[in-house]
Design goal:
Length: 522
């Protein structure tokens, strides 16, 4: 979706419209820095910014890294992404390569910039086969724009003539096709509404050696600036995060724009903002804890499920006993497990964490689960999702590894519980099930005002057989390889991989669920 469309949609209500915000990041210089950035980004994106953007290094110095970060932001972090693109040292061929790349990745937003002069040069010089200014770039890509501060004189103000000329030039950019205007970073709000004010320098001087005090002052200053901007009727804030999380979120918290306890979810999982997946609203539950793997393995599908799962057999997926460990993970005592890409357990897991810990100690090694929900309000932090004023439902579900003997006993006990359905398979593909291979089971759904019923999560036996290859591979690739060849732990993990079954178990009675009762006598 285009950023301008999201902004107009959010602010369409005029004075009653909400203030929207966005975050800007820059490419780190190391691989470790990149991964740390994505961890911060995941946490910040949970607060639903309108978009996030990533900068383009001077002269295209970070071109490939910027392109890769933008791709991951749009498709794996699942946030509307705007990529900076500059003219500096950029022949048209290099610009077209960048545009073709982001188009392929489903990115629709570009911030068009002339860019700073290359290092060591005082003035911008157009290279042969390149553009002279952002206007040329806007006309070429017809997307976005940013103003530059060259008309500002030493006193921090533009002359009336320069100011008028810059506004006229800005209008030409808009007329050429720019949709969104992003200002340079600024500190004086009065200049923004009609560079560092002396009162800020004075306030920082006595605390300059106290990092925490400087950060706190920055948050307070940013908050007051934003309040003044918002009081003028402006309802869009773009925060230059400098890749820092706490200060940006601190400002938004002070403004009342976010609350840690009220993070909303349009769906139980985060949908990529990729242009090609905008209508996707149904997924198999098996990848609930490995969403990036699912997105990667389904990239390139001609159609993504919308409204119902349909016939999954037509879709092709891309390639790809330590009971105490599993128990501690279910109780939240371990940050993650090899079967999860998430930072921590989902909030809803706390509802059933004791039951999960109990069955892990009995040899049922859980990797995915959800509690039953019968008409909970969509705003409820633990299980809610979707628009306000709705109600959500889900069937109890648990997925686990267990030995063949335990599976046989479980199958026998399940006969006394007609609401239970299961699919089990081992590494070699031997299948044990009481449902058909094409019997798709909706396990999460929601009812909302003025909408059809949404069912975003399903148990699909066909997809389960695809998922099992990935799930079993993790025993060796994600865990056993951490130990040396002659380590007994490695031998044990490989034995589990080769002999255990992967089991998907659903209690279809979401009103009077008794899923864990079947494990009682083990």
């Amino acid at each position: 979706m285009k950023v301008i469309e999201k902004i107009l949609e959010s602010t369409a209500a005029g004075d009653a419209g909400k203030t929207v915000f966005s975050f800007e990041f820059f490419p780190p210089k190391t691989e470790e820095g990149v991964e740390n950035l994505f961890e911060r980004m995941e946490r910040m994106v949970a607060h639903n910014p309108t978009f996030c953007d990533i900068t383009w290094g001077a002269g295209g110095s970070t071109a490939e890294l910027t392109l890769e970060i933008a791709r991951r932001m749009q498709n794996l972090v699942c946030v509307e992404t705007m990529m900076h693109l500059t003219c500096t040292n950029m022949p048209v061929e290099k610009i077209d390569h960048a545009l073709e790349t982001i188009k392929k990745d489903g990115i629709q937003n570009v911030l068009a910039l002339r860019g700073d002069p290359p290092r060591g040069q005082d003035k911008f010089v157009q290279i042969q086969g390149g553009f002279a200014c952002a206007l040329d770039l806007v006309e070429h890509i017809r997307k976005s724009y940013e103003a530059h501060p060259e008309v500002i004189e030493s006193n921090g103000l533009a002359t009336p003539e320069a100011y008028a000329n810059d506004l006229a030039y800005l209008k030409r950019k808009v007329d050429a096709g720019a949709d969104v205007i992003v200002t340079q970073l600024f500190y004086d709000v009065d200049n923004f509404l009609k560079f560092i004010p002396s009162e800020i320098t004075a306030a920082l001087e006595p605390i300059k050696d106290n990092e925490e005090a400087v950060r706190a002052y920055g948050v307070q200053l940013g908050t007051e600036m934003c309040k003044k901007i918002m009081a003028s009727g402006i309802k869009t804030l773009h925060l230059y995060t400098l890749n820092m999380e706490k200060s940006a979120l601190g400002i938004l918290t002070n403004l009342g724009l976010i609350e840690e306890s009220k993070i909303s979810r349009p769906l139980p999982w985060r949908r990529p903002t990729n242009l090609f997946r905008l209508k996707e609203d149904v997924r198999p539950i098996f990848w609930a804890n490995r969403p990036k793997s699912y997105i990667t393995r389904t990239t390139g599908w001609e159609q993504y499920p919308h409204g119902r799962w349909g016939n999954a057999s037509n879709a092709s997926y891309g390639a790809l006993t330590d009971h105490q460990k599993f128990m501690k993970y279910c109780l939240g005592q371990l940050k993650t497990s090899p079967w999860s890409e998430l930072d921590a357990l989902q909030p809803e897991t706390k509802i059933i964490d004791e039951q999960l810990a109990s069955i892990n100690l009995k040899g049922f090694l859980t990797i995915n689960s959800q509690p039953p929900v019968n008409g909970a309000k969509s705003e409820l932090p633990s299980v809610g999702w979707g628009p306000a004023g709705g109600y959500v439902y889900q069937k109890a579900y648990v997925e686990f590894f267990c030995s063949g003997d335990k599976l046989n006993a479980l199958v026998e006990k399940s006969k006394a519980y007609p609401s239970l359905t299961y699919v089990a398979v081992n590494k070699d593909g031997n299948l044990v099930s009481n449902v058909g291979i094409n019997d798709v089971n909706a396990v999460t759904w929601g009812v909302f005002p003025a909408k059809e019923i949404i069912q975003p999560t399903v148990v699909d036996p066909s997809s389960f057989l695809i998922w099992k290859d990935e799930a079993f591979e993790i025993w060796s690739r994600g865990w056993a390889q951490l130990y040396s060849e002659d380590d007994s732990s490695r031998t044990l993990l490989q034995e589990v991989q080769n002999t255990y079954y992967l089991v998907s178990l659903v209690d279809n009675d979401y009103i009077n669920s008794n899923l864990f009762t079947v494990f009682k006598d083990f």
